[in-house]
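Researcher: Going back to the complex we discussed earlier. I've cleaned up the inputs and rechecked each line, so this should be the final set. Can you rerun the prediction on the complete assembly and write out the structure?
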Amino acid sequence: MEHAVEATLTVNGTEVRRRIEPRQHLVDFLREELGLTGSHLGCEHGVCGACTVRVNGEIVRGCLMLAVQADGCKVDTIEGLSDSGELAKLQLAFHKRNALQCGFCTPAMLLAARDLQLRNPRASREEIREHLSGNYCRCTGYQSIVDAIEEVLHGQG
Amino acid sequence: MKAAPFAYAKPRALAEALDLAARPDAKILAGGQSLIPSLNMRLSSPALLVDINALGELKGISLERGVVRIGALATHAEIEKSQIIQEHLPLFAAAVRHIAHPAIRNRGTIGGSLALADPAAEYPACVLAMEGVIFARSSAGQRQIRASDFFKGLFETDLKPGELLAAVEITAQLKDERSAFLELARRQGDYATVGLAAFATNGTKRLAYFGAADRPVLAQNAAKAKDLDSAKAALAKDLQPPADLYHSSATKLHLAQVLLERAWNTL
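Model: Rerun complete. Updated structure for the full complex:
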């Protein structure tokens, strides 16, 4: 831990203070130091989107942000957003519409979908696809994911 | 993969950041959306990362006397939402929607994009098309570099060791000026197969292509042509695009001509 830096983060509403190696990115920190394994690590270079978390209210690639950079930030993960009920409608719609199979991409998909719901609640199918363009799913072919999000956005959820 | 170990500093003052950045093996960390992948893949292993995100003077978008100044730390998302950009730099407003995906646009910065100089990136071509000026700071002072002198080659710029890209200034687009931004990519948000940032003022066109060479390039012969057909023919003299995994050089040239055709009547 020769380069470790002290940092304080608020993760899912709880303040955590740790000495962090600068080279550790945010998702490794969440998974390995805090045991929050709902944020997944796929490609680890910003392509697959499976590591999406929310930092100060904005979705980011958790593998493309160093944990030390989150010092002083409010970090929300699938665990916190799921427990708070914020994602409940989306989760139900994903379940109903079979919008997941293996589930690896799902936490990040839900965060991206929720981000769209907050920013553009009347998004069209095309805009939903555009907003999810940075999140890979290898099971569903996306159709059912777009269906589920559309159902929630258009108020049938 | 995991990044190799490095030290981390987050200076609160520009002078301190410039001192740290001048150290051998130091790298500047802005949005990190290209640097952190290259660290994770160990394509890059600096001894020290200098995080410039606390430097307020590198932030913000402002309009003064007809010139838009974009601070190096302005994120793609901030540029996307900026009223100033929408009203005065429609070329940039159109370009930003092609940059990666929302989660990346929330962190990636214009300064990072210009300093990295990826030949398929959007902003370098926009800055070249609109003859922007890049401001570089170092402990020796400030230097202004014209866009046409800034991009030197593949991931290569005129920035010297110890220099930090602080801002870019672009003259606001006037009512009688025209611009067009077009990009072809295999998927929304991917790097361009080929793209065109075009600007027309006083009957002069500036056609900046990206994804078509080792840096953004102005198609000067095509820009001088009187009509579309001769412009398309002239484009073959301006561009010799390198082939990529999916497209031959001839295909890329053809696609560049398609973009020219789409842009022509709006310029």
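Model: Worth noting: Chain B touches chain A through 31 residues (CB under 8 Å).
Researcher: Good, that matches what I expected from the previous run.
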